[in-house]
Design a protein that fits this description.
There is one protein chain. It contains 10 helices and 14 strands. The protein is an alpha/beta fold. A 12-stranded mixed sheet has the order 9-10-11-8-7-6-5-4-3-12-13-14. Strands 1-2 form a two-stranded antiparallel ribbon. A hairpin with a 4-residue loop joins strand 12 and strand 13. Helix 1 crosses helix 9. The radius of gyration is 20 Å and the shape is globular. The N and C termini lie far apart (about 45 Å).
């Protein structure tokens, strides 16, 4: 008899890409109301029974690490620090073998209080969303007067050794696009690593407009008025989403994630797990694959791993934002997890 062929161990798609970077949403809730993400009144949050429990999250992460070759875990939201069990989840994740790199993307509120505990739990680093260092603009963008809390969170993360502390910024036309050099100087002064992200069609209001988006070329022009920028060796970028530029000769750098105007789908190595246990093979996918039901029905690790492999095979070659037929995902960013 011929031995049965083995299913590939990794999360490979039909275009030769292999996902090794898992983004795990811990909650769809958030304590800010950023204008490019959600309406002021918030959204219809997931009911608690729909959410994965702490044990279920760790179980699925352990399947990804132990059976599917994932070596990097990023906890996201919503706002992941709103999850009461976040420190324990991080601690249990960093104890997995082989030990993955573990990070968190946060808006920074509550980070001052939790940074040291997260570091002691094994967290490697943080990405903090911050679009301005001006209090009035922060209030306009987020509808919350919490800039001091975010700045305190950044400082606490740096002090705790969660480095490099990365800052993610979105520029909005007519709101904060004139503040790009100011934000970069702030990060240079404090030893943070800044990355600008082109605004993407992931808002709950479906109000994204290409004409209103600040492009990578515009960002470079804005920064170039004050800083000398030079592109780093593209060969070192790998699957990283950000194009990197040295600032004034280095060693400091600034990154630009140009998901819309300079898509990098061909090198994508990411997969996402939503807070309610759905696999998304792309940030812009309009379909999901359910792991929660199988998990709660008693599926073993290998069955869950196989379901995950099958979910990844249908990944499209690109997100299609620049195609006339593109349709925005039904779920907004806060429910998908960045």
């Amino acid at each position: 008899m011929t031995a049965p062929s083995r299913t590939p161990l990794g999360l490979a798609d039909n275009y030769g890409r292999v996902a090794t970077d898992l983004r795990v949403s811990l909650t769809d809730r958030c304590n800010l109301r950023c204008t490019y993400c959600m309406p002021e009144e918030g959204l219809d949050w997931l009911a608690k029974p729909e959410l994965l429990t702490d044990d279920e999250i760790v179980r699925l992460v352990s399947v990804a690490v132990g059976h599917l070759g994932v070596d990097e875990i990023r906890f996201t939201g919503g706002e992941p620090l709103l999850r009461r069990g976040v420190v324990d989840i991080v601690s249990r994740t960093t104890k997995l073998l082989p030990r993955p790199q573990v990070s968190i993307t946060t808006n920074g509120i509550g980070l001052a209080r939790q940074a040291q505990a997260l570091r002691e739990a094994g967290l490697d680093r943080v990405n903090v969303s911050l679009d301005t260092v001006r209090q009035d603009t922060f209030l306009e963008l987020t509808r919350r007067d919490r800039l001091k809390d975010v700045l305190a969170g950044l400082a606490a993360a740096h002090e705790a050794g969660l480095t490099p502390v990365k800052v993610n910024a979105v520029l909005m036309r007519g709101v904060n696009d004139d503040q790009a050099p100011e934000l970069l100087q702030f990060c240079l002064d404090h030893g943070y690593e800044l990355r600008f992200i082109e605004q993407m069609p992931l808002d709950a209001q479906h109000g994204w407009s290409r004409d209103q988006m600040i492009t990578a070329d515009e960002i470079l022009e804005l920064l170039g008025e004050r800083f000398g920028l030079a592109a780093t060796d593209a060969a070192t970028r790998g699957s990283a989403p950000a194009e990197s530029f040295t600032v004034n000769g280095g060693p400091a750098t600034v990154g630009i994630i140009a998901s819309v105007t300079r898509p990098f789908c061909g090198d994508c190595d990411r997969v996402r797990l939503t807070a309610d246990g759905q696999v998304r093979d792309c940030l812009f996918a309009r379909t999901e694959s359910d792991l929660r039901t199988a998990l709660r029905a008693g599926a073993g690790d290998e069955e869950l791993a196989d379901r995950w492999r099958r979910a990844m095979r249908g990944k499209l070659p690109g997100h299609g934002i620049n195609d006339p037929s593109f349709l925005q995902p039904v779920r907004p960013m806060s429910a998908i997890g960045g």
